[in-house]
Structure formats: C-alpha cells, structure tokens
Amino acid sequence: xxxxxxxxxxxxxxxxxxxxxxxxxxxxxxxxxxxxxxxxxxxxxxxxxxxxxxxxxxxxxxxxxxxxxxxxxxxxxxxxxxxxxxxxxxxxxxxxxxxxxxxxxxxxxxxxxxxxxxxxxxxxxxxxxxxxxx
Length: 134
Fold this sequence. Notes:
By secondary structure, the chain is mainly α.
C-alpha cells in the first residue's frame, strides 16, 4: 500500500478534498501505528542502515524486522538501495512526515504535536520528529 502524502497546504485549504486528506492521513497513521516502525524510522533518520545494523539497535527477530521494513517500504515511507549483498534503508521524505504531523495537529487540535516538530538534531526537524527512547 503506497501512501500518498497530503500536500503541505491542504490542511489549510477548505476547497481541497477534505475526505481525501483524511483518508491519506489515516492510511499513513495506520502504517505508523506500530511502535517498532516508529523506532525504525527514528533510527533511519540518523543515517541509512541495513537490516543487521537496525537489529543491533532494535531488539526483535529478523523476520519481524523485515516485515516492518517491507510495510514501511510499500507505504512509501522508506526507500532502499542495494550495495553488494546488503540492502540499505533510508527515510524517503522526512519533511513530508513533518508536514503530516503538522496537518494532524491542525485537524486534531493538539498543541503538543508542535513540540515534536521544534526539536533540532543532525537533520534539524527531521530526526527529532520521534522521541528518543529513554
């Protein structure tokens, strides 16, 4: 399932298809609803990694990791490239994720979402969309 990210201005444009915006937002939130997927995205915001490197950071089984990576890839959240026998994953468009979170804040009216968007890091506003584990 490839998720079409809503256009950044769509949340403020009442003439845009509000149901389409809600549908695409709900589809992406469904993909992002698994805590392990959020941890994967958080890790990949720092740098691209292969499955072995991700498993060194995130404790799970290899089949479970591969399943979540595949879900994120099919949804268009992650990209991948092959280098020899390794496949490296990366976040395709972290800015689109930030835009989506901004739009959801407008739709849901939660001011706390803005705290996630204001953080800085190696990729300002990108890697810090998701909180660091304690």
